[in-house]
Amino acid sequence: MIRIVLAEDQAMVRGALSALLGLEPDIEVLGTAADGEAAWRLLQQVRPDILVTDIEMPGLTGLELAQRIARQQLPIKVVIVTTFARTGFLRRALDAGVLGYLLKDAPADHLADALRRVQRGARAIDPQLALDAWSQADPLTDRERRVLRLAGEGKTAGEIATELGLSHGTVRNYLSECIGKLGVANRIEAYRLARQKGWL
């Protein structure tokens, strides 16, 4: 029996996935969570074989959950099911040890088959996305990504400096690096492009 936890912030999608997977004779849904923090607590309580998670959720994102699982060396495999066909997300997911990455518009039976493959230790990645992922590398460092994300949320350089424990000048340097690497005119364009590519 493959024991799973579902993390998805959209109630209808969460319910549909849970019902769908519950019909499979070899898959047991141990619980569901509507945000990343609730998912993290649930994972520690029930210790499933696989976490099936969306990427963008309140609290922790699916990628942050995968990174935390990897850091703490929990024996939980991760499968991401998302609407985001962005190669940057896929590359970051693979870097975090994610074994499955599927799009929500894939046929329903693909998910159950993917879970079985992942349970055996194989990868289950959307094939077109896998091909596209290696054509364009993510140019941002983790620190640049954090600074740019906060700038895109409307925070000033001073506020970002305070939040991240950096000097004002260091934050400005990071933002300049992001703008230069992405070949855009300002931090707003840098944020927009990085989000579009899945690098944030």
From TrEMBL:
Gene3D superfamilies found in the cross-reference section: 3.40.50.2300, Winged helix-like DNA-binding domain superfamily/Winged helix DNA-binding domain (1.10.10.10)
UniProt GO molecular function: DNA binding
Alphabetical list of SUPFAM superfamilies matching this protein: C-terminal effector domain of the bipartite response regulators, CheY-like
HTH luxR-type domain boundaries: 133-198
Keyword Phosphoprotein: yes
Modified residues (4-aspartylphosphate): 54
Short name of one Pfam family: Response_reg
Single GO BP term: phosphorelay signal transduction system
Domain (Response regulatory): residue spans on this chain: 3-119
This protein's record includes keyword DNA-binding: yes
Highest taxon above the source species: Bacteria
Alphabetically ordered keywords of this record: DNA-binding, Phosphoprotein
Alphabetical list of InterPro entries matching this protein: CheY-like_superfamily (IPR011006), Sig_transdc_resp-reg_C-effctor (IPR016032), Sig_transdc_resp-reg_receiver (IPR001789), Tscrpt_reg_LuxR_C (IPR000792), WalR-like (IPR039420), WH-like_DNA-bd_sf (IPR036388)
PANTHER family: TRANSCRIPTIONAL REGULATORY PROTEIN DESR, TWO-COMPONENT RESPONSE REGULATOR
Name of this chain's protein: Response regulator transcription factor
Protein source organism: Stenotrophomonas lacuserhaii
